[in-house]
Amino acid sequence: MTPRLILVLFTAGALLCAQVAAPDPGRKAVIEGKVLRLSGEPLPKTTVHLRSVTAAPSGPFTASAPTGYVVTSDSSGSFLFDSIDPGRYVLSAERTGYLQQWFGARGPNRPGLSLTAGADAPLKDLVITLTPQGIISGKVADEDGEPLAFAGVSVYRMGYQGGQKQLVRAGSAVSAADGSFLAGFLAPGRYYVSASDNRATINGGVAERPGNKAEQSGYLTTYYPNVLDPATAVPIDIGAGTSMSGVEIRLIRGRLLRIRGRLTGSLPLPGSVVLAPSTQGLPQPAPVQSDGTFLFQSVSPGEYTIRSNRGGPRNPGQPPLSFVYARVNVRDQDVEGLDIPLGVGRELAGTVRLESEQAAGIANVRVALQMVGGAYDSFGFQNAVARPDGSFGMRGLGPEKYRVSVSGLPQGVYVKSVRFENVDVTHDYLDLTSGSGGALDILLSPKAAGVSGVVRNEKGDPVPNVPVTLWTPGRPPNGVYEVPRTASTDGSGAFQIFNLAPGEYRVAAWEDVEAGLAQNPDFRARFESTAAKVEVQESTHATADTKLVGRDAIQAEIDKLP
Predict the structure, then answer these.
(1) Are strands 532-536 and 437-445 parallel, antiparallel or unpaired?
(2) To bridge 345 with a disulfide, which of 37, 278, 323, 373 should be the other Cys (CB 3.0-4.6 Å)?
(3) CATH number (domain holding residue 95)
């Protein structure tokens, strides 16, 4: 069946459904329920939001300008929506002193379940239980114990991003005039706290340079209870509604280094460059002067990358953007006289093709590159959308290795092969460390497989709204990081995963798993022997009834991870 015929049939079916199931605009749906404390007592004066699933809600659903309805719970904690249009919605509640909670979610800051509200089927007796916020408060001081105002305080938890274990920011605060700080809206968990001297950022935007040749020193980012290495920081355990006070951080003074350099070449100068740590940390910007010079100050020893903003997709007829990329190792001396040539970076052209008689391209398929290793930040991520003829392009890529991922595929289509300069990289890295670029050919097949199933607990009962992970067993070749497929069970415990390549897979469902943890191959490997096994061929569908992995079993394996 050709893509054109599929589109025609889909459009005709959608029009038929619209004619048959068009709602009566005069009839309204009803949703009602209660908001409770953890103790089960009613929680009045809570703001309850109802948002259409066709809009992108905030919180765990990645949001921008949602639309919907709002009410406030009464003295008994009850809420009522009685003038809403029939449709599918997500429901959330928030109140000062509590963490936002979505209906059906298995805890704060977790995705919830959608609700279908019909004019003939009111939804009643819904319950949302709010968790009180945790708070960490204390004082930031200098080495003599004197208070430091305008210090930046960061609260971290140990988490996983892109399968990599690292500190993930969970909250922040700024110290007041007396050095005090308060960081709230913390969910139950274990946290690490750091403080940095941010007074230089409030000088009105004036770029200040040292006024003498003396060795420059300043306050380094310090972790509670006064250490520079986050690995030796002392964690703070926060329970529901816990308020941990008296956390004092005395900033450690040390030598601060500077990096001074110049951009050379005939291309237009970028407005700024950034200094990015090779491991963990936030990029530090610096303006580029009219003569191409730049200066980074207050730099701690470490390995960094100096770079400009990424070039973005390549548009026909658009002039090339200046690209800056250089590695620098800062030890115990200032870095002076660093010359960095301007360029356009690595360029990548490509084509997305559908395996068919006409080998037609597929428009709107998104191709993404994620830089391997280093800090998990947005610079190392680029993406482009295929044009109607299937072509796409990227530029401003650094000389790095990248993972290739393809999304936005029509249902029933999978990635059959990815080739770079006639070399198969379907299960390998895209290596741009040498050369100026190349062509990427992505072949799609309309014969994808699918897997569905029902997740059950030890009693055999279906479990709603839990994450499900599907992955290829064994260690990937060449150490290539595999991005597993994920889904969530619906209200009846069922899940579906489409667009699979033929092969053997493992499927597991998690009662309570840290976001990003299931992307870690070492974690998944510990469950391969107990996960559901499933094998699919092209154009086939398999069933994987999956048992739920409990919290205790998950935590036991987390404790064994390096």
Answers:
(1) unpaired
(2) 323
(3) 2.60.40.1120
As given in the structure block, the two tokens for residue 446 are 């309309």
Same domain, 228 and 123: no
Half-sphere exposure of 244 (CA within 13 A, CB side): 22
Question: Is 231 strand, coil or helix?
Answer: helix
Is residue 11, in this structure, part of any structural domain at all?
no
Residues 32 and 109 in one domain: yes
Residue 396 contacts residue 369 (beta carbons within 8 Å): no
Q: How far apart are CA 162 and CA 282, in angstroms?
A: 17
CB 473 within 8 Å of CB 506: yes
For residue 329 the two structure tokens come to 């190792």
| 182 falls within a domain | yes
Q: Cα-atom radius of gyration of the chain, to the nearest Å?
A: 27
Determine contact, residues 161/376, Cβ cutoff 8 Å. yes
The pLDDT-based confidence of 321 (bands split at 50, 70, 90) is low
Burial of 55 (0-12, 13-18, 19+ CB in 10 A): middle
pLDDT at 17 over 80: no
The values of phi and psi at residue 20, to 5°, are -80, -40
Q: What is the mean pLDDT of residues 149-162?
A: 88
548 and 533, same structural domain?
yes
Q: Which residue has the higher pLDDT, 458 or 210?
A: 458
What end-to-end distance do the CA atoms of the chain give, in Å?
49
Is residue 399 within 8 A of residue 438, CB to CB? The reply is no
Of the three residues 414, 445, 476, the one that is the final residue of a domain is: 445
Q: Contact at 8 Å (CB) between 555 and 462?
A: no
Report yes or no on 213 lying in a domain: yes
d(CA 57, CA 36): 22
Is the model's pLDDT at 436 over the cut of 80?
no
Structure tokens at 288: 């580029």
Q: Is-contact 253 281, C-beta < 8 A? A: no
Report the C-alpha gap between 411 and 10 in whole angstroms: 12
* DSSP labels, 460-520: S-B--S-EEEEE--SPPGGGPPP--EEEE--TTSEEEEEEEPSEEEEEEEESS--TTGGG-
Give 88's DSSP letter.
E
What is the tally of structural domains in the chain? 5
* Alpha-carbon separation of residue 110 from 18, 58, 318, 492 (angstroms): 33, 11, 42, 18
The model's pLDDT over 348-378, given as tens digits with 9 standing for 90+, comes to 899 999 987 554 557 789 999 887 765 444 5
Q: Which residue has the tokens 């529901």?
A: 240
- Angstrom distance (rounded) from CA 521 to CA 528: 10
Assess if residue 8 is contained within a domain.
Answer: no
Residues spanned by the domain of 435: 346-445
Same-domain status, 53 and 88: yes
255, 278, 309 - which closes a domain: 255
Answer yes or no: are the C-beta atoms of 336 and 426 closer than 8 Å.
no
- CB-based burial label for 120 (10 Å; 0-12, 13-18, 19+): exposed
Residue (of 37, 38, 63, 41) closest to 51 by Cα position: 63
Q: Name the token pair of 101.
A: 């909670």
